[in-house]
Amino acid sequence: MDFAEKETRFTANRLVFLQWAVVAVFVFLISGFWRLQILDPDYYTRLAERNHIKELPTPAPRGRILDRSGHLLVDNYPSFSIIAQWGDGKKLQEHFPGIAEGLGMETAELAQRVETARRRTPYRPIVLREKASWQDVAFIESHRSEFPELDLMTVQRRLYPPEGFAAHLLGYVGEVSENDLDLPELALLPPGDQVGKAGIERQYNDVLQGTDGARRVVVNSYGTELAVLDERPPKPGKDLRLTLDYDLQAIAEQGFQAEIGALVALDPRTGEVLALVSRPAFDPNLFTAGISNEDWSRLIHDSGIPLLDRAIQAQLAPGSIFKVLSATASLETGIADENTTFYCPGGSVFYGRYFKCWEKRGHGRVNLHQAIVHSCDVFFYNLGKNLGVERLADYSVQYGLGRKTGIDLPNEESGTVPSPEWKERLFREKWYAGETISLAIGQGALTVTPLQLAYSYGGIASGGYFARPHLVSKQNLETLGRKLPQPAEVRLALQEETVAAITDALYGVVNEGGTGGRARIPGLDVGGKTGTAQIASVEAARSAKQSGEALEDNAWFVGLAPRRNPEIVVAVLYQAGQHGSLAAPLARDVIKAYFDKKKGIQPQFAQGAKPQKQVVEPRPAAGLGG
Amino acid sequence: MTRLLSWRDSDWILLSVLVLIATLGVVQIYSATAGTRFAGAHLRQISWVLLGLGLMIAFCFYDYHNVLNHAPWLYLLALALLIATLVVGSEVGGARRWLRLGGFSFQASEVAKLVIILLLARFFGESQIEGVSLSDFSKVVAAVGIPTALIIVQPDLGTALTFFPIAGIALFLGGLKLRYFGLLFLAGLLALPVALHFMKPYQKARIATFRNPEQDPKKSGYQILQSKIAVGSGQLWGKGTAQGTQTQLRFLPVPHTDFIFAAYAEEHGFFGVLFALLLYLIAMLRLVQNAQVAPDSAGMFLIAGVLGVFAFQILVNVGMVVGYLPVTGIPLPLMSYGGSSVVFTFVAIGLVNSVRIRRFVN
Fold first, then answer.
1. Long-range contacts of B329-333 (CB under 8 A, 24+ apart)
2. B233 with B266: CB under 8 angstroms?
3. Which residues in chain B have Cβ-Cβ distances shorter than 8 Å to A10?
4. Is the peptide bond before A469 cis (omega within 30 degrees of 0)?
């Protein structure tokens, strides 16, 4: 075969052309690296980091809540939340069906959740499910490579006492809502973070909250965690010690059984709240992992309004309880003294209208002491007429009604002290003189909260020292670096004779065959006053008439001991109660337990009734009592 | 004739540059596979390189004219191997590309590549006339078309594509008028819809993704994106051997084969890339030089064919790594892990050297 040389200029030229073509190819390729590595390296470096570095929030556990002697009321327990790292939004959306199936939810529901979270806090991890079950955890762990955007976050959840124990005052926590994020201190919270929504949890959220930490970890493309890059440990929230007395609270809670009502026990010397009950209660544990729609709907449609904190929010007519305020005002203004008497024939005419006494047979001639002991209406009609509505209203406000006491709980109500000016402003109607007569015995448009009554009685019996009610003491607030809200107290210079007359009368109510005999405790200097109010308030009466609801009596009792400078005042409300007679014994039980504890006798009633510590699934324990 | 041959006339620059590139490849394979199920691949790669070097030396001393004489028989053998691959080849991921023979697996397409170079070198070496006649052209198309078709149906479109530059360069140096290249280009454009029709869905997806990488972030687009991230995040100096997060944490797909240059770029940066590409450029320019000094036109065509295959593979593979070209699965010569490719490369270089050391013979 002949391989003769065939060298021509032509091929030589074309080889030179090839040579330059090769050089051109390399210039072309180098330009690619120039673009990526020299012109835009930071962009790709960021993408590379986003690929392999995941930031996982480590939520700070909230501070625990304790009673005055360190008894644990609210604790935490660990659980997992399922979170999705936003990263590549398209990728996450593609995985919706698979993730939804694995977690047993609807794709639409999942998409909705992600969309809401994304709008609120873009580029931050999304909580897909609070409180993951063990099946959920297993699903995440076994699908790490398939859904690398999913992760588990250890969260400390709230564990509240069972049976709605102290539910209203403790409150509950919930996920930060869009409204909350407007508040500067909440705006930077990570998604799914729990903040106090009600009660102490809300009032002292900044103390309890703590600061979340974070962990940056290296992951591979299968989502497996390889190493921890750095860690910012969470700062746990501070524990909060309340003035609440667990034993007194337990006795009070149990005393209501299935009844609707409220109880407030204060130490008037300091304003410390010893017990604060509202019934019916709810289970705050329902809120700890995001309340379900069914549970929420049940709570808000319950006719017993379990979310209402009756101790500070129920605004009801005080009835005869108010007579003590009428009496105090009369003594202070001098329109009456210990010897002032009126004759009660069972009723009397004022301003052309007949007002009857609850005792149809009449009380005969009574002085102020007897009038309070036997709760004579006619006596107080006369006092009211002589005092006049302006002074009556004015003194009532001084004694703590018609204004907020300033307790450290959110959403306290102020009640209403009616006056001609108030009526004109609200209803554009003239004040009828007859209304003053009703007002003097605590009826009509006058409304109060149970807390106000305890506050008011405590202030009067303490000679005019009205200490602002609170659940966290001044000393505790100072240790937490917070100041006591001002004013800490209101001082009225009540005359000694006035205080003596009133407190003696209160003693009489309980110990001298008066209406509060059931509150008697042998060997203890207990005073008190009963009350029954027929109508809740003008507004309530109107709305009740419209809705056709039956209006039932509200039964009140306010007890205190000892009668002068009392250590404890207990206000009890039984709403719509045929069981009004239970109010006085319940106050008695709480007062007795208080003094028993002082003597070192543990109230056997509440023995062993501690909130059960539960690890994974908090369920209400069988009961409170031991 | 043989007496005048000297091993010392070898292209030492070319050989050392290629050994250097193979070394970079081995190190990068080690870095990319340590701790994975492919661990130890670098040792196998070393043995392939050693085998390749042995074959290269053997082919240096073997007169390439003898090989060219056997080209038609080798061609038929290659076709037989390709058909055997289609019939009894082992199936991996829906494609039959590998032929098992006595405990070894190899890709017949690599053999076919070499054989086509030889066949065309012989064909154009024999031709005495200047320019390419229509009958010559038809013969070339038929000779290249048959193995190309057999490889396309494996399917291995990427490897099939490497036959075009071989034929193209041969026709170009053979004297095909430039306007016919224009015509060929037009014909190619017209054939495109037909080709698309026969494409597998994944191939269509790759092309679609290449044109719009964000469209399909998890699959081919994901590969291109991760490759670009790896390269870009390597910056000027790179993250260091075995330090590339994209490579080590498996974000980069197949970092020891098709995407080895992305892994290399991530760990050694722009300067590392310049160094490696410079080595490749030197190798290519040495091939051109060797073609220029070839003792006869058959030798020149042989070297030009080898140059065409290499340059094309480098262009397509590295172009893919920087996101300029679609994902094709063409290995980077001497760096990508794989025995068939390494052995083919060294045998081809052996033939080139065989031409070179005979440059003073006449």
1. B329/B156, B329/B158, B329/B159, B329/B258, B330/B158, B330/B159, B330/B161, B330/B162, B330/B258, B331/B257, B331/B258, B332/B25, B332/B258, B332/B260, B332/B261, B333/B21
2. yes
3. 130, 175
4. no
Domain ranges of chain B: 2-356
Q: What's the rounded Cα separation, in Å, for the pair A538 and A443?
A: 10
Tell me whether residues B292 and A226 touch, CB distance under 8 A: no
d(CA B235, CA B243): 13
Strands in A234-374 per DSSP E: 240-241, 261-267, 272-279, 341-344, 347-350, 353-356, 364-367
Q: What is the pLDDT of residues B268-281, one digit of tens each?
A: 999 999 999 999 99
Q: Is A145 annotated in the active site?
A: no
Assess contact for A562 and A496: CB atoms under 8 A: no
C-beta separation of A150 from A143 below 8 A: yes
**What amino acid is encoded at A243 in this protein?**
T
Domain boundaries defined on chain A? 53-210+218-241, 246-297+304-606
Q: Which two tokens stand for residue A179?
A: 């409204």
* CATH code, residues A246-297+304-606: 3.40.710.10
Residue of chain A whose Cα is closest to the Cα of B248: A220
Task: Report d(CA B211, CA B196) in Å as an integer.
Answer: 15
Interface predicted TM-score (ipTM): 0.91
Q: Is B255 helix (H, G, I), strand (E, B) or coil?
A: coil
Residues in chain A with CB shorter than 8 Å from the CB of B125 are 3, 6
pLDDT digits (tens, 9 = 90+) for A368-402: 999 999 999 999 999 999 999 999 999 999 999 99
Please answer whether residues A258 and A225 qualify as being in contact, where contact means their C-beta atoms are separated by less than 8 angstroms.
no
| Contact at CB, A221 and B251, closer than 8 angstroms | yes
Amino acid at B98: W
Q: Which helix (H) or strand (E) holds A600?
A: none
Q: How confident is the model at residue A267 (pLDDT cuts 50, 70, 90)?
A: very high
CA distances for A190 relative to A36, A52, A59, A117, angstroms: 34, 21, 9, 11
Supply the pLDDT for residue A122. 59
Number of Cβ pairs closer than 8 Å across A and B? 159
Domain A53-210+218-241 homologous superfamily, CATH: Penicillin-binding protein 2a (Domain 2) (3.90.1310.10)
